[in-house]
Amino acid sequence: MAAPPQSPGATVPVQLIALPDFPQVFEGDNVAKLIVEASIAAGLILQNGDIIVLAHKIISKAEGRLVNLDEVLPGERAYEVANLTGKDPKLIELILRESSRISRVREGLIIVRHRLGFTSANAGIDRSNVPQDTIGEIVVLIPENPDASAARLREEIKQSLDIDLAVVIADSHGRPFRLGTVGVAIGVAGMPALWNRRGEHDLYGYELQHTEVGTADEVASAASLLMGQAAEGTPVVLIRGLKLPSAEGQASDLVRPNEIDLYQ
Amino acid sequence: MAAPPQSPGATVPVQLIALPDFPQVFEGDNVAKLIVEASIAAGLILQNGDIIVLAHKIISKAEGRLVNLDEVLPGERAYEVANLTGKDPKLIELILRESSRISRVREGLIIVRHRLGFTSANAGIDRSNVPQDTIGEIVVLIPENPDASAARLREEIKQSLDIDLAVVIADSHGRPFRLGTVGVAIGVAGMPALWNRRGEHDLYGYELQHTEVGTADEVASAASLLMGQAAEGTPVVLIRGLKLPSAEGQASDLVRPNEIDLYQ
Q1: Is CATH 3.40.50.720 the classification given to domain A15-63+144-256?
Q2: Looking at chain A from residue 45 to 104, which residues have their Cβ under 8 Å from any Cβ of chain B?
Q3: pLDDT tens digit string along A32-71?
Q4: Which of A18, A182, B87, B243 gets the most CB atoms within 10 Å of its CB?
Q5: Could you give the count of Cα atoms lying within 13 Å of A186 in the half-sphere of its Cβ?
Q6: Helix (H) or strand (E) holding B227
Q7: What does pTM read for this prediction?
Q8: d(CA B178, CA A193)
Q9: Fold of the A66-139 domain
Q10: In this complex, which of B21, B129, B175 lies closest to A204 when CB atoms are compared?
Q11: Contact A179 B214 (CB under 8 A)
């Protein structure tokens, strides 16, 4: 088949842009304001249809979701699980408080169903990129309600710039079957989280049978490629030019209900 | 903290470009040649460091991995599993031939460990975007050895254009815990599949403990956002400007070994 002539616009790229020089975030910071300032400083003009993807940790920090492990009093169950994992009972106590159920426990590993429904190691509690205290170890929890945080951030940017963009709050999860963590969405506003494409047809008119796409997770994974996990300090990525259906969802749409999860 | 002045180049975006008007692929087609032609037709000049992500189906078609179900003779085990799932015994027979182990079976669902190590529904066998025969239903298997296919494609483009790029062959997989399929890498050449960042340090000098990133899966997910799953006909996505370590891996690196997979 001869290649058709170039159709102008057909190759307009989707752009992924890590906001450079994003400042450290502290409790009480206005993250919407920091994003607007960082985008202006970078010469970027935020637009309708942009997607802002944020490492969840900066939301957690702004919301004060930091805990000094020295101030945690482990219960009996925490000591039991700490024995099984070899982890600090204080950390385990926090993990259990954040969780609705333990999924798997092994030496060095605890995988739980978070009270928000996500299943991941350590209930998303992490120590990295947090300034440590001289008294006790500081850990950061995932935001109290990341969907609400995403919606609030979206609204604040709308108020500030009069533009309608989407917000995705991302975390990195390990997975059954496959090695390596990938970016996933734990908070979503202004775009679909789960894109139900059932009923659409393929190139030959055959109806798609099982095409429900984890779109917000794919967005989080794409942004994760630019975020770095360590010292790069690029916790905010702008995605521009991605065409998505206008439907709006939230990250909780991505949680597989217990009754259809064969791998609890 | 005052925003620093714009550093030129810091906001150079990573670009995701769906190759427009990519032709239908048939058995024996030279996919490298089709990619070079489609990129030229789109006014794109492929460059060192580009990543080409392909829907696995075009590789499967080029390699002739199509099967007419009418020519499949189901064995006893296939009839048993067909009974459990309500699926066509001929399709089940093919799935079992492609698999090393059944992971879960339910009404309407069969999840297997593919002989290549990936765990997914139907061993990756799919009917969509395949021209159907008047005699029997045509299905497409995943490529015989997608890592080898990716390496060959990379080599052919190198021979043709004298550039060194990376190739990722992508599929869409459902997942435990989370709804929706996401793009994953089943063939990789010219870039790391799994990026081991252990030993790196965070912003505060704390050594990262568990940072092994499924980089090629994140690349596949990013590309999947542009591919569409249905009639859009954009099975090839170019990713440009992504900085990755020079290490090379293959998709088999992403397979979690049995002994550390707690969710078999």
Answers
A1: no
A2: 104
A3: 999 999 999 999 999 999 999 999 999 999 999 999 999 9
A4: A182
A5: 28
A6: helix B215-227
A7: 0.93
A8: 11
A9: CofE-like fold (3.90.1660)
A10: B129
A11: yes
